[in-house]
């Protein structure tokens, strides 16, 4: 039985103007005009039988008209108009299926076609069609439609991750809550595979089967000798690309920077070659490059640089020597390198112990970070806490993990690839706009831009999460085809989201500053309908809840809290 059985008497008005995706409806009765509300749905008769067009009401206006008749008697008239953005087609039948909604426009209304308000029983029935259409085993549940609290809002899980997604919202809008809801559902899948970049440790409370917590080792973990099995992640320096090594060790303002970079390339390559020769890895020797993930001893590199920096060569006169070509030109490079190696904050890079120099260390690391639930029997969703990584090198380290994931997928035979999603929380901190980027940021941006452009064909998906979309790299956002937008109060952030939405839905984003906490506008390939959704509460809430200042100030503060904070600060470890 067809879902819509409207009669002409139920019509609110008739189509007066038709554009490519926009229709203007003239409403004859001003009382009926009151039933039309912006961002609600409307149904229009299609030019094809067995179809109805679904539209989103974007504007409702009442105009006063003044007609001067031949008797010069002035008479007031009203013109009631409703602008509707067409968003899809409802088919009474599609093959064996009945009542099918499609996000395509197979036709447009004719002039004088009837327009009906989608409300009451018809709205509930339509929302159920949407829910049933999405709940086909590929569904990702976010919450309930604001239009109808009885209808569950589903997204297509395939399209959400295939075509990248953006989750944005001001502080306290429910952004982390939404992310936690998505993580919760991913963790329930048999062979889920995702990495969550947790910059502040706020997702630590999430506890589900299929989920594993890791932390980039801080001074406390390094001192106590914790390993991957204990949840401590070490990212040894030899995993860094040549560009990243140069960014970390070479001061670009140094007049000898070009020489230092060139010599580093040569000596790192030589150190890797020596490691392969000593380990008997002849099969790799003929094809490795300076960027290949081959271990090398940083002490050997320091020794080589020191020898070059103090090298004396035969002079013009017999028996006399002169300073070598690079004598003294590497002093600042060596000093920076020695300082980094001994910096306790960078223990996860340089102080991981002999294990991190083993040839099979990379296999252990990637198995932990990229193994699916079924493979590692621990958790397909890996939440990595970067809270103790120094902010000046944070972009380098986050992008290192992203590059590992992308490289593993790239070098895996096509038929054996298992897709992985990267959830980039606080993305503006390590994928900023180009004009706001430093040297470390540039390397991070290059890696993430490549994943955004090429990741789909290698099975790598990005979910970009940020409270400041205006500060996130534009290329990243332009590659996202799904948007979950929470409340945004900053005009620059609002304008970014508006520009990314289809022109016909531009007005739909005007409600961004008025959304309630936990409410979102959802638009994109994964959503059957551009919708306003109230996000369901996750089972475990992240550590990002807003503190109730006024209430807390009416209770006594905890004894010894400041002394404990100072102790933790000195130890660089929260206990």
TrEMBL record:
Give the signal sequence positions: none
> Could you tell me which residue ranges the Helicase HerA central domain spans?
141-403
Pfam families in the cross-refs: DUF87
Residues annotated as transmembrane: none
What name does this protein carry?
Sea9
What is the scientific name of the source organism? Neiella marina
């Amino acid at each position: 039985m067809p879902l819509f059985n409207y009669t002409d008497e139920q019509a609110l008005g008739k189509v007066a103007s038709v554009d490519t995706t926009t229709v203007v409806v003239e409403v004859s009765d001003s009382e009926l005009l009151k039933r039309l509300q912006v961002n609600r749905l409307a149904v229009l008769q299609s030019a094809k039988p067995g179809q109805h067009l679904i539209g989103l009401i974007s504007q409702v206006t009442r105009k006063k008209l003044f007609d001067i008749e031949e008797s010069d008697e002035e008479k007031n008239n009203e013109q009631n108009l409703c602008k509707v953005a067409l968003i899809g087609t409802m088919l009474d039948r599609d093959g064996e299926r009945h009542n099918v909604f499609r996000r395509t426009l197979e036709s447009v209304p004719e002039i004088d076609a009837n327009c009906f308000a989608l409300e009451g029983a018809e709205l509930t029935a339509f929302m159920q069609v949407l829910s049933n259409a999405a709940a086909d085993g590929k569904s990702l549940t976010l919450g309930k439609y604001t239009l109808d609290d009885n209808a569950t809002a589903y997204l297509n899980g395939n399209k959400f991750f295939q075509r990248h997604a953006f989750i944005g919202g001001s502080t306290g809008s429910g952004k982390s809550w939404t992310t936690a809801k998505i993580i919760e559902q991913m963790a329930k899948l048999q062979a889920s595979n995702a990495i969550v970049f947790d910059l502040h440790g706020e997702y630590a409370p999430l506890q589900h089967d299929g989920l594993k917590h890791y932390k980039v080792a801080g001074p406390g973990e390094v001192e106590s000798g914790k390993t991957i099995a204990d949840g401590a992640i070490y990212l040894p320096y030899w995993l860094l690309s040549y560009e990243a090594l140069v960014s970390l060790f070479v001061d670009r303002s140094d007049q000898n920077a070009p020489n230092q970079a060139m010599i580093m390339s040569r000596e790192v390559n030589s150190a890797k070659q020596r490691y392969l020769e000593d380990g008997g890895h002849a099969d790799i020797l003929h094809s490795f490059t300076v960027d290949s993930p081959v271990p090398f001893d940083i002490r050997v590199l320091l020794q080589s640089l020191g020898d070059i920096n103090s090298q004396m060569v035969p002079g013009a006169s017999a028996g006399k020597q002169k300073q070598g070509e690079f004598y003294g030109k590497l002093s600042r490079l060596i000093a920076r390198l020695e300082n980094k190696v001994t910096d306790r904050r960078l223990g996860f890079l340089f102080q991981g112990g002999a294990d991190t120099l083993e040839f099979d260390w990379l296999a252990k690391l990637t198995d932990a970070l990229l193994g699916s639930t079924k493979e590692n029997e621990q958790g397909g969703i890996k939440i990595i806490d970067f809270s103790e990584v120094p902010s000046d090198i944070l972009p380098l380290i986050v992008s290192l993990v992203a590059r590992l994931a992308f490289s593993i997928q790239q070098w895996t035979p096509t038929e054996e690839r298992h897709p992985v999603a990267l959830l980039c929380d606080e993305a503006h901190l390590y994928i900023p706009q180009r004009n706001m980027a430093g040297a470390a940021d540039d390397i991070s941006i290059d890696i993430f831009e490549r994943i955004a452009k090429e990741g789909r064909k290698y099975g790598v998906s990005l979910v970009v999460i940020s409270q400041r979309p205006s500060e996130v790299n534009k290329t990243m956002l332009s590659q996202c085809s799904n948007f979950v937008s929470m409340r945004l109060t900053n005009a620059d952030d609002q304008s970014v989201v508006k520009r990314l939405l289809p022109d016909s839905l531009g007005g739909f984003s005007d409600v961004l500053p008025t959304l309630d906490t936990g409410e979102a506008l959802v638009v994109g390939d994964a959503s059957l309908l551009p919708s306003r959704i109230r996000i369901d509460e996750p089972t475990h809430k992240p550590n990002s809840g807003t503190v109730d200042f006024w209430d807390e100030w009416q209770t006594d503060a905890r004894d010894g809290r400041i002394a404990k904070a100072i102790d933790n600060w000195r130890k660089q470890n929260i206990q």
